[in-house]
Amino acid sequence: MNTIQEIEKILEMIDETGIAPSDEPMRQYYYIKKCRTAVRKLEKECGRKLECCTKTFGCQMNARDSEKLLGILELIGFVSTEKEEADFVIYNTCTVRENANLKVYGRLGYLSNIKKKNPHMMIALCGCMMQEKPVVEKIKKSYRFVDLIFGTHNLYRFAELLYRRLESERMVVDIWEDTDQIVEALPVERKYRFKSGVNIMFGCNNFCSYCIVPYVRGRERSRKPEEIISEIEKLVADGVVEIMLLGQNVNSYGKNLEEPVTFAELLQRVEQIQGLKRIRFMTSHPKDLSDELIEVMRHSKKICKQLHLPVQTGSSRLLKDMNRHYTKEQYLRLVDKIREAVPDISLTTDLIVGYPGETDEDFEETMDVVRKVRYDSAFTFIYSKRSGTPAAEREDQVDKEVVKERFDRLLNEVQTIATQQTKRFEGQILETLVEEENSQLEGYVTGRLSSGILVHFPGTKELIGQILPVKLQEAKGFYYMGERA
Ligand code: SAH
Ligand code: SF4
Ligand code: F3S
Prior knowledge:
With 485 residues, the protein is α/β, with parallel strands linked by helices. Helix content is 38%, strand content 20%. Helix 2 packs across helix 6, helix 9 (263-271) runs parallel beside helix 10 (291-299) and helix 13 packs parallel to helix 14 (400-422). The two termini are 38 Å apart. Residues 204, 206-208, 211, 213-214, 248-249, 285 line the site of iron/sulfur cluster (SF4).
């Protein structure tokens, strides 16, 4: 990653009338400069600055990608806005469950109406959903007003693709099947000044039977530790105190590097970075969570006391079918080991209800895990059939009514336990990173504890980005009301 000042210097040296360089990231800088000129021309025509809006669906990885898109757009000269009435609107899509896709189609209808009123408007789609052929076919056929479509593997080429669209009147579509490239050093515009996600790897090799991610994000690729460390150092120099290391399965980080490094080793190196206060990571796959990692967590001063450890189901029979490579018993043993090493850790998880062939007994196993582990919170999902995944082919899909009834029971149990769990810190004074002004309560700010739980307390926006001791006066379900200690 380069700072904006460094990038500006590079841009100054580029001759945009020459031919495009073939090496990355120089090629993209060249196109950023060309886009800049084109956008300035449009600004003159409109008599105002052009606005852009990035909208993210899906996970933290997508959120980080959107920050990269915004970094490029701002460098080109767009002014960022939350409003979808902008001149350039990009949806960074997710396809992990059917309703993620439905949301995008729904909003596209709305965007087409806005576009009718603004002839300069451009609409772009990218992200995981675009890696699915039928989706792109459907958009090409029924959503002709879309200007630009690209996927997850060529996101770094955004400036080049945007330039292609600016130069022609036609829809630009560019989707790659896969890539082994990791392009570093492109600009990023962070959503928060004081915290940031940092990709440590891309893709996934696990092929859980229900999951589409490996098909749309490609094979696992780890970034080099030096690149990661250097990015974090730059972030810290720019005011970041908390980072979240991102990957679909961070516990298998570094295995495919020329000089293999374990995730635990990477964490130890990140811990050494002066000025960095908090480290989070996600997601941890239980099958690859090592004793070495638990030891590092036990001794770390910076790793937050929170672990997201998706179990998916409590049924060992289904876990085998899901290709998760652990049993219920192994998972519970792992939880015990972690709790022994880090006693007050907050555990969170993902749960799927209604996986094909799920019986009442299987479901009761899930309820049992929830009661035994006592999660601080859990994301509960209804199984969603994803074409192309092995589980979608199965004939024993569970009846919708049955799934709904199980889902409601599970959610109820999860919430009851989460409320009780939250209460355990009541009355304590804990370090809190102030994240934002409270939108509901005037004169209040909202901060996050090491455990990930939110606390609202009296304060002003000057406190944002600071880590302060806060007394947790009252637990209210999933959050606290507090007071500066
Ligand atoms: N890599 C992470 C999860 C990424 S997807 C991991 O392995 O834990 C986030 C969550 O979405 C998954 O943990 C799973 O609970 C859920 N999910 C994935 N595919 C799904 C599907 N087809 N239906 C319902 N939920 C799904
Ligand atoms: Fe999907 Fe499994 Fe990979 Fe997670 S580990 S992204 S659930 S295939
Ligand atoms: Fe969705 Fe893609 Fe993330 S499918 S969950 S945005 S990796």
